[in-house]
Design goal:
- By secondary structure, the chain is mainly beta.
- It has 1 helix and 14 strands.
- The strands form 3 sheets. An 8-stranded antiparallel barrel has the order 7-8-9-10-11-12-13-14.
- The longest helix has 17 residues.
Length: about 180
């Protein structure tokens, strides 16, 4: 009796899972970056997976027709980025903020993913600034002279807030993301 009940439950669960009416489109883009320097060759692998899910909804049934047209429904897009570093460690990034940003005096900055966060580099700089994620969805910004708190605003711009202990003030710099 238990076996029959268990078998029927399993059968109904299988049928219910197969009857989910959704269109799913998965795409994966892999980028391999190789950097050669005095220490040797380092490879990092960036794997971006995009999943588009759309529930299938049908229009009203017309009399004396066999086929029912599909109606437009919203598409949910889920995007994840996995970074595999040269040392073999892998991390997942919710939103990839890599790109070019404009700062003071029309200086162009490049933000790129690295093994623990992001690097912030200008064309002429030898040593990059570092952005390290905190547990409260902000970043610690560090360069040779400064340690500050930073975050990305709702428009995707980078905002860095620096505390000056001599004047007891907070200075805010905004780096505009180039579209």
């Amino acid at each position: 009796m238990k076996a029959i009940t268990l078998s029927l439950t399993l059968l109904f669960a299988t049928i219910a899972m197969q009857s989910q009416n959704t269109n799913v489109l998965k795409t994966t883009e892999t980028t391999v970056t190789t950097v050669k320097d005095s220490e040797g060759e380092k490879k990092s692998i960036k794997k971006e997976e995009t999943q588009e899910i759309q529930k299938i909804e049908l229009k009203e049934e017309k009399p004396n027709t066999l086929n029912i047209e599909m109606k437009e429904s919203p598409v949910e897009v889920i995007k994840t980025t996995q970074i595999t570093n040269a040392d073999g460690t892998t991390r997942t990034v919710d939103i990839d903020r890599s790109g070019y940003y404009m700062g003071d005096n029309n200086t162009k900055y490049k933000i790129a993913l690295d093994s623990r966060g992001y690097t912030l580099v200008t064309d002429g700089s030898k040593r990059p600034g570092l952005l390290r994620k905190t547990s409260i969805n902000t970043y610690i910004y560090r360069n040779k002279n400064t340690t500050a708190i930073s975050y990305f605003d709702t428009e995707g711009n980078l905002v860095i807030e620096t505390y000056d202990y001599k004047t007891d003030t907070v200075t805010t710099k905004k780096y505009l993301r180039e579209k």
